[in-house]
Amino acid sequence: MEKQDLEIMGGNSEVVHYERQGLPLYIRTADLEQFTGKRAACHWHDDLEWIHILDGTMNYSVNGRKLPLKVGDSLLVNGRQMHYGYGEGGCRFLCILFHPSLFGDNQVLRQEYVRPVLENPALEYLYFDGEEEEGRKTGKALRRMAEFKEAGEMAYEMDVIGWMCLLWAEILRKTDVGGGVCPAGEREDRAAQKEMVSFICRHYGEPLSLEAIAAAGHVSRSKCCQIFRKYVGQSPVEFLNAYRLKVGRNLLRDTERNVTEIATVCGFSHLSYFSRQFAAAYGRTPREYRRGAKKCEK
Known about the structure:
alpha+beta, three-stranded antiparallel sheet, 10 helices, 46% helix
């Protein structure tokens, strides 16, 4: 099975490929085993994201908060939160992303029912236990949306939007979505983390030191490492190498550049080191990966 990874933009914001251009909706069923190392990349996006566990278990991180998810559980991640899923075994899950604009542009509805959720700094996510009635109802609604998409009938998007609105109304009635306060220290750490990740994504091809990464976030080296461990689950160097390898994999698949040139472009000084790291991450050498990718195109 071909390994998958999220497509990430320069600021580590995920590129969301919607079902249809101009309609901010994405619905997919996936398996954690499809991701390299059974771990999605730490990322963020403006869209809200629903995760519903269909089989197995998964750990989920939202701004460094670790959440164990089991069969039937659902999780709504608010927009612009750093998050990723990971695990040890297999986990089949449903992922639904939607932009708030899906609810329409009526200013009254947006002001009263959408912005209180989006602009609450303390509302990072909402967890729904699949063993409780509310969690079961939430999971049923999410699975129903996936069924509409799978059936592919004309105007299925309207069915999905209808269920999404019903689910949103239930959340508003049962959850305190009023203004919250994010501790100043945590707010500053999140801002520093995004600055450092963005710096890496812009300069990955250059020689980068821990000092340079920390300076991008205006923090010390030790604070830099602490923030990365908390929000990304990796050290700064581990994240840098993983990002370089991801870029290298895309270049192997999508360009005709030779392997040595790709290694250099991605910031690796030695081809042998690039090859070893690539094989450890993807289970194949760069040349083997390229041959496999080209076979898939035929």
